[in-house]
Amino acid sequence: MRTLLRFAGSAAPLPAVTAGLVAVLVGVTSSAAIVFTAAEAAGADAGQIASWMLALGVGMAVTCVGLSLRYRAPVVTAWSTPGAALLAVGLDGVTMAQAVGAFVFSAALITLSGVTGWFEKVMDRIPVPLAAGLLAGVLLQFGIGLFTSMQGDPAVVAAMFAVYLAARRWSPRYAVPAALVAGGAVAALTGSLDLSGVTPRPAVPVLVVPEFSWQVLVSVGVPLFVVTMASQNLPGVAVLRNDGYRVPVSPLIGWTGATNLVLAPFGCFGMNLAAITAAICTGPQAHPDPRRRYLAGVWAGVFYLVVGVFGATVATLLTALPPALIAAIAGLGLLGTIGGSLASALTDARSREAALVTFLATASGITLLGIGSAFWGLVAGALTWAVTVRRGTGGEAGPA
């Protein structure tokens, strides 16, 4: 029995399991509605929508577990949220078969990017302060959401914050799990958490044979590839590197693309490295030992598999969880990562201005040409870096 308990404690440490659960909870609740909207835009019925969730869940489970174990790093994948938003608008008038053809085309391009290694070469040229500023900008809204969520449900969020602070004082490792339990308890007591209408139902895979229309490939497939790489994979790599995980990028991109390619006919429209949810699993809240944080990625995969298998119940579950609880636990779970990213971005005076521009542009949420602010923040920061740091003016102070 002692051997069994030691094995359970080693394979499933509470902080890692909780980090994986919170990552999946945040990922699903923050963007599942967009996925449903995208599926409906393509004319998907209830069975096909459930199949989309099953394919995405299985794909993320396979890549999270497989890549985390392979590289002993917390590699967390996710569906492409900006890609789903793009599809929700771009699939109007497109048949399901044509939409799947675009998914296959985009996945093939992502796989090619990983196999050829060009994406990793681009990432290797990004200065560390800019990558840190990019990550801080991506995560800023979640940190702010911790406090803005108090307007919606002050009792739940205040209780979570109080328990978090108390746990940080006496048991820092369990601060986030304790806050999650407290929030759930208060939500149940106040009536804002109601699970009575949630009935578990397994999803069934529905195969759609792809149809390749060049108009749809150009108007949907190419933009889906661009936003997935620029708005998702780019900050995803930055998250891993910011926390010291020098995992080879090309295999990560290649395997996520290949998995996406296989599952595309079942509704897996876009898979990529996670950024926001990955940060929950790469920081100290996931495990005090960085070498053991890969278990958070493994458990995220396990929970994603559960989400996929019961994809038909996700919609009803979303309505049962108080939005304030999700916003608060995400903010609490990311406090350490946000602080560390800002410190890393602003430490060097020579690169401080370029890192600050990256942070502000990314945090602005601007979208141009269908590409999100993570890409444009990096562009603005790189331009500032090239003009100031490379020319030796980055360390000069302006007038007081």
From TrEMBL:
PANTHER family: INNER MEMBRANE PROTEIN YDCO, MFS FAMILY TRANSPORTER, PREDICTED SUBSTRATE BENZOATE. GO terms for molecular function: benzoate transmembrane transporter activity. Keywords: Membrane, Transmembrane, Transmembrane helix. The chain crosses the membrane at residues 12-37, 49-69, 100-119, 126-144, 174-192, 212-231, 294-318, 324-347, 354-379. This is Benzoate membrane transport protein. It comes from Nocardiopsis flavescens. GO terms for cellular component: plasma membrane. NCBIfam families: benE.
